[in-house]
């Protein structure tokens, strides 16, 4: 089933008045987020651990937190507005970069900034917890890494993301979890089909909405074969590799190229 995920508005945080407690709140929220990320690092492995480590480095960066403090002290912004302004300034610089890699870090900056807001004012956090109770193809403008990691992947049949790229951390996590993704599809073109059954074939770039029996049958067979192939590949990947002269070697591949 196609399920539409609307982007959260941050307006309710932006209008929170400045307070004498803002500096203390900021330090507490930064420390809490760092603690949460460290806890997740202890529980995760693989690509998710690498990305969580990158997020931890971002919030511990002096420039990231320092600019929030500067916006509060020099421009007299409230903490909520300062976190959002800092996010927007960094994202604007990244979006203007000629590097695809840097442009795709926008989602990471937005991710940690939103987490800071949610930690500081948990009562304002949207109640959309992305609970997937049945096989779902998630449709969204974008999905942050923390949102992806919060999903029950057993019921995530695929994702359609309007704004993502091949080095996006969310896309890397999806690939590592064998979740098919279609990107660069306008959200408006898909949103009207929300709630309808669909089949997503990311390998061929196909989204079949309300598929008939023939299409559904074809993809059921294709999925069975894909599952079998994935199992065989996983078994092969776990085998040790040796050179011709019997020396143990490691083989790695870049998932993005």
| Beta strand % | 5-15%
Whole-number total of structural domains: 2
Q: What would you call the shape?
A: globular
User: How many beta-strand runs?
Assistant: 8
Overall pLDDT metric: 91
Percent in helix: 40-55%
Strand arrangement within the widest β-sheet reads 1-2-3-4
CATH fold-type name of the largest domain:
Enzyme I, Chain A, domain 2
CATH homologous superfamily heading of the largest domain: PtsI, HPr-binding domain
Query: CATH architecture of the largest domain, please?
Result: Orthogonal Bundle
Q: How is the biggest beta sheet arranged?
A: 4 strands, parallel
Radius of gyration: 21 Å
Could you name the CATH class of the largest domain? Mainly Alpha
| Low-pLDDT regions | none
Order of helices and strands: EHHHHHHHEHEHEHEEHEE
> Could you say which structural class the secondary elements and strand pairing correspond to?
alpha/beta
Number of helices: 11
What is the CA–CA distance across the termini?
A: 31 Å
